[in-house]
Amino acid sequence: MPTTDVLIYTRTAGYRHDSIPAGAAALAGIAHEQGWKAEVTDDPGAFTPGRLAVCAAVVLLSTTGTVLTPEGRAAFEAYLRGGGALLVVHAAANAEPDWPFYGELLGTRFDGHPEIQPGTVLVEDPDHPATAPLPGRWAWTDEWYNFTANPRGTGVRVLARADESSYRGGTLGDDHPLVWCREVDRGRVFFTALGHSSEAYDAPVFRAHLSGALAWLTA
């Protein structure tokens, strides 16, 4: 069955970001630019083997809390292991808190954030399509996510990290990954901690970041 779709999932069972509509519109536009159909949904019933079989990629857009059924989890894990693709954006680091497989995919868990403020993203791997469009030192305003542990060493490829000296409230020190990717069996996973505000999704540089991520996932 050919893959034709990008499924953008926006369900929340915890905090809901006001930027979700802007993010969904931006990601749908990026998918269309790359030749995919896009569906935005908050229906957990979309996670079935049949629906996922035609998905080139699934996006978890700032999903929070438990947003999948046990059946959906099983179908989603099989999809990813079988060659599917997952783009995890911002607060989706705080999704599925009691699903070990999801935690293993991310390599860590969300652990709060300081107030929204300007800071600097340091591009570590400029050869990846998601970081190639970014300046080496990228001035950006966001919620600078902290994590329960550094994911480096869990099998992820770190692409960019936060310069904690450029803002207040970081907890990981000099090595504070923000953007990373990995392969899981035959599938691919990409995570960006950025994307808190609605305005972010209008910024050409951030859209280029997301576009590169989707292009890598569906290559």
Give an overview in words:
- It is a single chain.
- With 219 residues, the protein is α/β, with parallel strands linked by helices.
- The protein contains five helices and nine strands.
- The chain has a nine-stranded mixed beta sheet with strand order 2-1-3-4-9-8-7-5-6.
- A hairpin with a 2-residue loop joins strand 8 and strand 9 (187-192).
- Helix 1 (20-33) crosses helix 5 (204-217).
- The model has no long low-confidence stretch (mean pLDDT 97).
Average residue pLDDT: 97
What is the structural class? alpha/beta
Strand content: 25-35%
Low-confidence stretches: none
Shape: globular
Order of helices and strands: EHEHEHEHEEEEEH
Number of helices: 5
User: How many distinct beta strands?
Assistant: 9
Concise synopsis of the structure shown:
The chain has five helices and nine strands, in the order βαβαβαβαβββββα. The chain is an alpha/beta fold and 219 residues long.
